[in-house]
Write a structure and sequence with these properties.
Layout (H helix, E strand, L loop, with lengths): L2 H25 L8 H9 L2 H12 L7 H15 L14
Helix pairs in contact: 3-4
């Protein structure tokens, strides 16, 4: 094969691929981008997250706070995909 013919064939193949890629991209349906403010609202309304923030602000005292222990247990269960276990208050006993 001649060098010029090979270069022309390569150019034709490249143009055909570019046109195909453009046609595919143009035929895609646009999805509406999720606004950062919408994400922030969803996160702000999560009571578990609010409890985590509260416990974070308590610092070392959170280790002895019953509500923080409950929040941490619920967070752990959510992360591991387990059903939440009922909490027993330390003054109630089994």
């Amino acid at each position: 094969m001649d060098g010029k013919l090979l270069a022309r064939l390569g150019a034709v193949v490249f143009v055909a691929i570019a046109i195909t890629a453009t046609a595919i991209e143009m035929s895609r349906k646009e999805t509406a981008p999720v606004m950062e403010s919408e994400r922030a609202v969803k996160i702000a309304r999560d009571p578990l997250r609010e409890g985590q923030r509260r416990c974070q602000q308590l610092g070392q005292a959170a280790a002895s706070d019953f509500e923080c222990m409950r929040v941490w247990a619920e967070t752990r269960d959510r992360f591991l995909g387990r059903a939440p276990t009922p909490a027993v208050h330390p003054t109630e006993g089994p």
